[in-house]
Every structure is written in structure tokens, then in C-alpha cells.
Write a structure and sequence with these properties.
- It contains 18 helices and 18 strands.
- By secondary structure, the protein is an alpha/beta fold.
- It folds into four domains: 84 residues, Barwin-like endoglucanases (Beta Barrel), CATH 2.40.40.20; 48 residues, Transferase, Pyrimidine Nucleoside Phosphorylase, Chain A, domain 3; 228 residues, Pyrimidine Nucleoside Phosphorylase, Chain A, domain 2; 84 residues, Pyrimidine nucleoside phosphorylase-like, C-terminal domain (Aldehyde Oxidoreductase, domain 3, Alpha-Beta Complex).
- The strands form five sheets. A six-stranded mixed barrel has the order 1-5-2-4-3-6. It has a four-stranded antiparallel beta sheet with strand order 12-15-17-13. Strands 7-10-11 form a three-stranded parallel beta sheet, sandwiched between helices.
- Helix 12 links the parallel strand 10 and strand 11.
- Helix 3 runs parallel beside helix 5 and helix 9 runs antiparallel to helix 16.
- The radius of gyration is 25 Å and the shape is globular.
- The model has no long low-confidence stretch (mean pLDDT 94).
């Protein structure tokens, strides 16, 4: 059937979508989610089909194409071409096999990754793949193969370095910006640490969001390499560089239900480490009721798998279990967290000591993994002597930021609300999820200056009227919403 193109001026962000009027779909006996093959000149594409029920969206004799299809075929509005019945991708059969409890071969996993990257699988089909791994599991070989295929089909950073160190935190703890302190300490110690970090999905800020307050983070691999060669380090957004790109597509689909199948979780983290040629990796697993790992037993089990997978990939991996029962640091939100980081690096009296000490502990462990001696003392000396701060300024400059930035010049939200203790007592809990929710409703991370500042933590004694936290927002209306959230949920418990 020959059809005229209608540019729908809509992008899916991945899946190839085409729309037929219901009369044309009936002629070809096509239904929602069927595949059609589209050929234009010497190019072809397989698209998932939707059906228009009125002429307002797509008229009979026309085919509505989303941006991804238009770009792939290089077709324009009113071009004409033929469509054919399409076959389902081979990987759909492999996904079905996994749903039935089968074990996937290296070749089958490779095909799934290729089809995800080529947008040949719909969101529903990728969801079934994730669900299959979640319910049926991946053995160690499948996990290794998934890791390797994600690296193979993405960009990699090749450095002429024998030792490359890296770290990862499983998240769930607001304000846990250890990366931005560890990286300059490690780089100042003479080690190479090309750090790719994530943006926030459900948190008030990711490391990339916070670093972006100080310098650009969306760098191509070539620029990233230049920064690392000049400074021994970088702190960039991994999503900008196509590292393990198939994993990024799966993360978007895993997020709504918080599905983290163990095999996928391991492959996701280790693929990004292998993509930058890491040789030594420290993994931080915070344990607490609002983190990914609720119990020490669960975290210890994953620790063994991290070490096994790392060994098979030629990496030395160490895993630490840390306290995830409350936020780390005082600031929650990009600008407020950036201030905390600079306070620590500048040895400012306002520096949050919990953030400083956790960063020093992790930096020392990373140095120890590479054979350094007196690591605790050396890490502290590098930080407190100002060498780490000087290194951070180098990194900021090379990434295109202002190395002279002062923490007090970082703009925070102009609309504020101070939460005070309603009674005297001791703080027995600070709920990570509620704190994160309040900060996000206030506007973080989209509004960099939004978030909140914690004046007190678990174990602190307070009098009635003592400031507990200050909420910051760039919008009076958003501040109002944040206050309403606090009325429904009490984020800080006093006993």
C-alpha cells in the first residue's frame, strides 16, 4: 500500500512509531502494536503501529510518522512510499524464552541489546525483558555477557593508564555527594579517576546535577579524555556520552516500578565502569529502610556478586556497607549540595563533618586498593592542606567552569521557610524519602537553587523552637506546596 507521509512532529525518545488511519489498518488486517516495514529509496525501518480513529490525526491514504522514523529514513512531509507487513525482531523470541525460565546465550543477549539500541523493541517488549530478568533471574554468565554487550555497543574511554580508579554508590541517601570530594583527593594523590555520574531520577539531585552548578558536565568522550589527561580526573554526566547506551534506555523503563533485577543492576554499574577502563572500583551500598538495600544480609549477598563479576571482568572491586538511615551533609538540592562540597574542600567551619569523614574514608580505601601506604593520613593531608581544593579548581576550569567560584556566591532559592521543633527532645529519625520529596516539590533538581538545608541530624538534642530545616524555593507557589507536604508527613521525628 502506497501512503503519503504526515510529519506528526512528536518524538518518542526511542521507539519507532507509525500511525495509520483505521480504514487503512483494516484493509491490511493490522492492529495496535503490530509491526510494519517501511521502505524509502535505499533505506528501511521497522515501526510499531498505532491506529488513528479519526481523520483529524491521520487521514486515509496517509501515514503519520514520529521523529525517530523520519530521521532514520530521511523522509519529509508529503513524501510517498510503500509499507509492508513487518516481522517481529528475533529478540522478542529470546525475551519469551527468558519469561519461560530459559537461560540466554551470549548471542541472544547481544541481539536483544542491538534491538534496544536500534529502537526495534517497543517499551512493552523491553518491559517484558526486564520483568523476565526480575522474576527468573540472571546467572553469573548471563550477567557477564550482558555487561560486555552493553560496553561493546556503546562508546568507551581509552586512556593510556595502567591504573584507573572509580567508585559507585547505589543511592537512596539525599545529599550523599562524596564523589565531588573523593575525585579531587584521588586525582591530587596522582591516580586517574574519570568519573561519570548520573542525574537525578527520583532524588533532589544527582552528582551530575550538583557538579553542573560549578561546571558543564555534558561533555563528549573526546573532551572528557582531554580533561582527564590534563587533570587526572573529571566529573561528567554519563548520559551525555553514549556509554552503555542500552542500559540508559532500560533504566528509564525500570524506574517507574523501581525494578532492579540483580543481574541488570550489576551489569548496569559494571558496564559503565568497564566503559571507562576502570581497574579498581569501590562500591558504596548504603543500608536503610529508604535505600535500595533494607538489610545488611541483602547488601552482603550483593557484595559477593560485585566482587565475582569484577574479577571476571578483570577489575579489582571492593564493596562497603554504609549507614543509609539519614541524609549525608546538610544541603539537599544542587546549589545547596554544591555549597557543602566547596565548604569541605575549602576547610570552611560550615563544612558538614559527616560528608567530610565519609569522603575521607572512601578515598583512603580507594588509595589502599591500588597499593598506597598510610592512606588515611595521606587522604586527610591532601584535603586539609588545600591540595584537593586546588585540584577541584583545575577540574572545574578544564570542564569549562569558573574555578574562582565562591560557595557563598552560589545562588539559592529566594523564598524560604524554616521548620522548627514543636517540642524538646532528641531526634530519633530523619526520613530520607520525605526529605527528598519536600526538596523535589520545592523545585529541585530542575530549579538548582531549590531544596532544603538540614540544621539537625539523628542524635541531636533540641529545645522547642530550635530550627530543624530550612526549605528553599525559586517559586512562592512551589514553596507553598512543599509546606503542604510537610503537613502531611513529618520528616523529622523527636522523642
Amino acid at each position: 500500500m502506497k501512503l503519503k507521509v504526515k510529519d506528526m512532529d512528536i518524538a518518542t525518545g526511542g521507539t519507532l512509531i507509525a500511525i495509520l488511519h483505521q480504514s487503512d489498518a483494516q484493509k491490511l488486517d493490522l492492529h495496535h502494536e503490530d509491526r510494519i516495514k517501511i521502505r524509502f529509496r535505499n533505506k528501511s525501518a521497522s515501526a510499531v503501529m498505532d491506529i488513528a480513529e479519526t481523520k483529524k490525526a491521520v487521514k486515509p491514504g496517509c501515514i503519520g510518522l514520529f521523529e525517530e522514523v523520519l530521521d532514520k529514513l530521511n523522509v519529509k512531509h508529503d513524501n510517498t512510499f510503500e509499507i509492508y507487513l513487518g516481522e517481529e525482531p528475533r529478540s522478542v523470541g529470546y525475551i519469551r524464552k527468558k519469561l519461560d525460565g530459559g537461560r540466554l546465550s551470549k548471542e541472544e543477549i547481544e541481539q536483544i541489546i542491538k534491538d534496544i539500541l536500534n529502537n526495534n523493541l517497543s517499551a512493552i517488549e523491553i518491559t517484558y525483558f526486564i520483568s523476565a530478568v526480575y522474576t527468573k533471574g540472571f546467572d553469573i554468565e548471563e550477567t557477564i555477557n550482558l555487561t560486555k554487550e552493553m560496553v561493546e555497543h556503546g562508546e568507551t574511554l581509552k586512556l593510556d593508564k595502567r591504573v584507573v580508579v572509580d567508585k559507585h554508590s547505589s543511592g537512596g541517601v539525599p545529599g550523599n555527594r562524596t564523589t565531588m570530594i573523593i575525585v579531587p583527593i584521588i586525582a591530587a594523590a596522582g591516580l586517574t579517576i574519570p568519573k561519570t555520574s548520573s542525574r537525578a531520577i527520583s532524588s533532589p539531585a544527582g552528582t551530575a546535577d550538583t557538579m553542573e552548578v560549578l561546571a558543564p558536565v555534558s561533555l563528549p568522550v573526546s573532551k572528557m579524555k582531554r580533561v582527564v589527561n590534563k587533570t587526572n580526573a573529571c566529573i561528567v554526566w554519563g548520559g551525555a556520552m553514549n556509554l552503555a547506551a542500552a542500559d540508559d534506555k532500560m533504566i528509564k523503563i525500570r524506574h517507574p516500578l523501581s525494578l532492579d533485577p540483580r543481574g541488570m543492576l550489576l551489569a548496569s554499574i559494571m558496564a559503565k565502569k568497564q566503559a571507562v577502563n576502570s581497574t579498581h572500583v569501590l562500591v558504596d551500598l548504603p543500608v536503610g529502610k529508604s535505600t535500595k538495600f533494607k538489610t545488611i544480609t541483602e547488601a552482603k549477598s550483593l557484595k559477593k556478586d560485585f566482587i565475582r563479576v569484577g574479577r571476571r571482568l578483570g577489575m579489582k572491586v571492593d564493596v562497603i556497607l554504609t549507614d543509609g538511615k539519614q541524609p549525608i551533609g546538610n544541603g539537599i538540592g544542587p546549589a545547596l549540595e554544591a555549597r557543602d562540597v566547596l565548604y569541605v574542600l575549602r576547610n570552611d567551619p560550615r563544612a558538614p563533618q559527616d560528608l567530610k569523614e565519609k569522603s575521607l574514608m572512601m578515598a583512603a580505601k580507594m588509595m589502599q586498593m591500588t597499593g598506597h601506604k598510610n592512606c588515611k593520613e595521606r587522604a586527610r593531608t591532601i584535603l586539609e592542606s588545600g591540595k584537593a581544593y586546588e585540584k577541584m579548581k583545575e577540574i572545574i576550569k578544564e570542564q569549562g567552569g569558573n574555578p574562582k567560584i565562591n560557595p557563598d556566591s552560589i545562588k539559592v532559592g529566594e523564598f524560604t521557610y524554616m521548620v522548627k521543633a514543636e517540642k524538646a527532645g532528641k531526634i530519633i529519625s530523619v526520613d530520607n524519602k520525605i526529605i527528598a520529596k519536600v526538596a523535589r516539590v520545592a523545585g529541585a533538581p530542575r530549579d538548582r537553587g531549590a531544596g532544603l538545608y538540614l540544621h539537625k541530624h539523628i542524635g541531636d538534642c533540641v529545645e522547642k523552637g530550635t530550627p530543624l530545616m530550612t526549605i528553599y524555593s525559586e517559586s512562592e507557589q512551589k514553596l507553598k506546596y512543599a509546606k503542604e507536604v510537610l503537613k502531611m508527613f513529618d520528616g523529622i521525628e523527636i522523642n
